[in-house]
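Sat 14:20. Reprocessing the chain from the morning session after the first attempt stalled halfway. Input below, unchanged.
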Amino acid sequence: MCPNISTIKTDISVYNERNRRRTEMKLKCLAVLAGSLLISGAAIAEYPERPIKLIIGYSPGGAADAVARIYSAALADKLGQPVVIENRPGAGSTISSAAIAKADPDGYTLGMASGTLYGIDKYVYNVSYSPDDFTPIMRLSMSPLILAVGAESDINTFPEFFEKAKANPGTMFYSSSGIGGSPQTSSLVLENAIGTEFTHVPYKGGARPCWQLRRGMWTSRLVRQHLCCRSAWAGK
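Finished this time. Tokens:
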């Protein structure tokens, strides 16, 4: 149930043009901040002397992984050292967050996290860290959520989705990238607004549930805009 494709393409073009210069500036700032974070004196001039690790809490192929790989490649070019992606999916990305919190503060371990790190994590999971254990550098991206169904679905509009969900509590399945993430919590808000119940199927990232949604395994999914559009443009 993506919006009109031509509208999406226009929106993305405007969004990309508006954020192109911001992204370039972020890369420059990120390179400087990565080099100065918790490093002082002569060490700054020598940094980095070895590859840098970038930990993310989601599986390869999803939105977070895509963003991480774009920035890691550009950051490696700026710093002159490889930036190696380490995917540690599971438990709503709290496994990766715990690893980042325990890493040596030497500038060679960076992490990419979602807003849940500073919000819902401690209420959903028994985490060993707090927001104070991290030093935020900058916001890398924003990606709106779109309610999507497979191309073969009999649902074509939101009113149709609403009526079907209202009349069939518990029988409509939706997938997400994990418990506690924004797709899942937003689905709970939608569920409450409609006054029905969905059946949740969590994963360790966004790529696989998107692939299965296209094949009709799930009724719907709140999916990041760029993943939805990629499938919609292909008619899937």
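Confidence is low (pLDDT under 50) at residues 1-16, 31-36.
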